[in-house]
Amino acid sequence: MFLALSAPEISHLRQFLDADEDCEALSGNEYVADLYALDAPVSLNLVFADGGCEIDGASYLAFDEELDGYYMSEPISSPEEIRRALMEAGALRARE
User: Fold this and answer.
1) Which of 1, 51, 77, 91 is the most buried (most CB within 10 A)?
2) Where is 81: in which H helix or E strand?
3) How many helices (H) and strands (E) does the chain have?
4) What distance in Å separates the CA atoms of residue 25 and residue 46, rounded to the nearest whole number?
């Protein structure tokens, strides 16, 4: 799935991913982002491309008290859901 982004959105998202301790750069263009602070935490695998990001994986996270950790629960199936999660996390700003 592809998330279309403007050049300023891409720049802001990259800055967010580089600064957040729960996000990891796998290469110059690929990141894994675990956004635990959201009401419904998510995990994303983002690959930057011309005009936005290819989403190689996206899932909601659920917490297992017995294991004391998060696991991937339901997949995220639309770019709109991903955009909302990134906006809630502060990784994207509202479009003008």
Assistant:
1) 91
2) helix 79-89
3) 2, 6
4) 10
Phi, psi angles (nearest 5°) of residue 22: -95, 15
Structure tokens at 10: 């891409």
42-53 per-position pLDDT tens digit: 999 999 999 999
pTM of the model: 0.89
Note whether 37 and 85 are within 8 A (CB). Answer: no
Other Cβ atoms less than 10 A from the Cβ of 77: the count is: 10
* Contact predicate 13/86, CB 8 Å: yes
- Alpha-carbon span 75 to 27, nearest angstrom: 24
pLDDT of amino acid 37: 93
Q: How many Cβ atoms from other residues are within 10 Å of residue 3's Cβ?
A: 22
Q: What is the residue whose two structure tokens read 């957040």? A: 20
> Is residue 65 helix, strand or coil?
coil
